[in-house]
Amino acid sequence: MAEIKVPELAESITEGSIAQWVKKVGDRVEKGEFIVELETDKVNAEIISEEAGVLTQILAEEGDTVLVGQVIAVVEAGEGAAAAPAAAAPTEAAPAPAAPQAAAAPVAAAPVVEETSGERVVASPAARRLAREKGIDLAAVSPVDPQGRVRVQDVAAHGTAPAVAPAAPTSVATSGGPVVFTPAANSDRVTIEKMSRRRQTIAKRLLEVKQSTAMLTTFNEIDMTNIMALRKRKQEEFVKANDIKLGFMSFFTKAVVAALKKYPYVNAQISGDEIHLNNFFDIGIAVSTEEGLVVPVVRDANSKNFAEIEKDIANLATKARDKKLGLNDMAGGSFTITNGGVFGSLMSTPIMNGTQAGILGMHSIVNRPVAVNGEVQIRPMMYVALSYDHRIIDGKDSVGFLKTVKELIENPEDLLLNS
């Protein structure tokens, strides 16, 4: 008999949630075979079986919170057969519905029947979680994906099924304070969703940054005329030579590296009463996923050419959206770039990432009238923002940094001199 335990993933990770069981009780399992997906604060991890045999027990359901070292399944010697009667949901391992612990997932509140057709539904972890919360049978959901994978959008479009009994509306009045009103859970005015583990972590860390730094933001605008013309001239040649398109991100990454070399305190961080000046240039690139923003890192961006940077960014973005990022893909960045322009943002104040001292925000390219050599011309313009920790970086360095990025993007040939 072999016990399947939650492995140690990183020093800072002590628990996770069961995102998806790939195998069910009674299934044959090979040694090294992926049987369950675990969602943690940072990444999704695939847990494998160390022994071959039959999965005889599942001790934690999808959505349950589990601790590192906890036994979540049992594999015993055998060839596999139909699921045993005891293979249903492990009631003895699931949290009691009335348990007051906030960390426990509400498994009993909205059960999901996933095998009415006799086959396990293929669905993303986010889709399974939403279906579980809304009491929707995944087998009844019609996926848009031609391969039949159910995604969170499909579950949302399917609508909700009647599930838990609504809690009575409550109102609480504090002495001298405002009255707080919570609508009933089934009210058509309010839809209640449980925050995912990753969303809770994102919220916690963003709040920590706001509370523990002296964050300030400075702005500038960039005339994108020359860089757009250069990309248009070189795109076909670049694609033929490198099998990837030449985007804006490689230019901005190169410009950021050059500016960080000129203003090293923007590439620093505070540790106690010390300032640590980083002599490396690992640039985080913010990527939007179904479950929130993640920031994988392009390592040693100063030593890479445009094609290498573009390929790194594309590979990391694909891994992020497929939930294949490892902890090493996101750890240790020295500066971050985020591009709200892909969603249509005209201007924003980005929040710094972790202990870093700065983050560059890119925005939409919009044709606007600007003064050029005493004449009004229509130019493609982009607002850029630098949020920075004022404890380390003074106004002179922050403005100088952003101005350097602006000048290099407006004169992209100059980036070759900084490569």
From TrEMBL:
Catalytic activity field: N(6)-[(R)-dihydrolipoyl]-L-lysyl-[protein] + succinyl-CoA = N(6)-[(R)-S(8)-succinyldihydrolipoyl]-L-lysyl-[protein] + CoA
Domain Lipoyl-binding: 1-76
Cofactor note: Binds 1 lipoyl cofactor covalently.
Residues spanning the signal sequence: none
Keywords: Acyltransferase, Lipoyl, Transferase, Tricarboxylic acid cycle
Pathway: Amino-acid degradation; L-lysine degradation via saccharopine pathway; glutaryl-CoA from L-lysine: step 6/6
Keyword Acyltransferase carried by entry: yes
CDD domains assigned to the protein according to its UniProt record, in alphabetical order: lipoyl_domain (cd06849)
Domain Peripheral subunit-binding (PSBD): 122-159
Coiled-coil annotated spans: none
E.C. numbers: 2.3.1.61
Transmembrane segments: none
InterPro entries: 2-oxoA_DH_lipoyl-BS (IPR003016), 2-oxoacid_dehydrogenase (IPR050537), 2-oxoacid_DH_actylTfrase (IPR001078), Biotin_lipoyl (IPR000089), CAT-like_dom_sf (IPR023213), E3-bd_dom_sf (IPR036625), PSBD (IPR004167), Single_hybrid_motif (IPR011053)
Pfam families in the record: 2-oxoacid_dh, Biotin_lipoyl, E3_binding
Enzyme class name: transferase
PANTHER family xref list: DIHYDROLIPOYLLYSINE-RESIDUE SUCCINYLTRANSFERASE COMPONENT OF 2-OXOGLUTARATE DEHYDROGENASE COMPLEX, MITOCHONDRIAL (PTHR43416:SF5), DIHYDROLIPOYLLYSINE-RESIDUE SUCCINYLTRANSFERASE COMPONENT OF 2-OXOGLUTARATE DEHYDROGENASE COMPLEX, MITOCHONDRIAL-RELATED (PTHR43416)
Record's subunit section: Forms a 24-polypeptide structural core with octahedral symmetry. Part of the 2-oxoglutarate dehydrogenase (OGDH) complex composed of E1 (2-oxoglutarate dehydrogenase), E2 (dihydrolipoamide succinyltransferase) and E3 (dihydrolipoamide dehydrogenase); the complex contains multiple copies of the three enzymatic components (E1, E2 and E3).
Protein name: Dihydrolipoyllysine-residue succinyltransferase component of 2-oxoglutarate dehydrogenase complex
